[in-house]
Write a structure and sequence with these properties.
The protein is mainly α. It has helices at residues 9-31, 43-68, 79-85. The structure holds protoporphyrin IX containing FE. Residues 22, 25-26, 29-30, 34-35, 48-49, 52-53, 55 line the site of protoporphyrin IX containing FE.
Length: 94
């Protein structure tokens, strides 16, 4: 496990790409036509599903990165945020 005190470029890029895709994904989900039995999925639905799959893959990648590149939690964080940020690694000093 690497010792780090700050999030690296990979973690930041993955984080913000996921945020950006979610910002696009919600309006597409709300605005695309309702799905009905037997209907052909339109372009909006195809795009929605494709973006959803990409988001899922990026989340899995980010989780894997998080497990192998832990970041020491900021000491000024409130206790509940420190505890939840350490939940995956159980690390209080890494
Ligand atoms: C992070 C990923 C995703 C987000 C944030 C998201 C978000 C949304 C939202 C906000 C809606 C509208 C719900 C409503 O109008 O009540 C929606 C609808 C829908 N989404 Fe997603 N979605 C995601 C991934 C996916 C994926 C991967 C699939 C398919 C494999 C999918 C299939 C659908 C379908 C079938 C609908 C319903 C359309 C309808 O009949 O109104 N979504 N989604």
């Amino acid at each position: 496990m690497h010792r780090q005190t700050q999030y690296g470029a990979t973690a930041k890029v993955l984080h913000w790409v996921i945020v950006g895709l979610l910002v696009v994904q919600f309006p597409i989900g709300w605005l695309m036509p309702d799905i009905h039995r037997g209907m052909e999925p339109g372009d909006a639905m195809t795009l929605h599903i494709s973006i959803g799959i990409v988001i899922l893959l990026l989340i899995a990648l980010r989780l894997g990165w998080r497990l192998t590149h832990a970041v020491a939690p900021e000491s000024s964080l409130p206790p509940w945020q420190r505890i939840t940020s350490e939940a995956f690694t159980g690390c209080s000093t890494c």
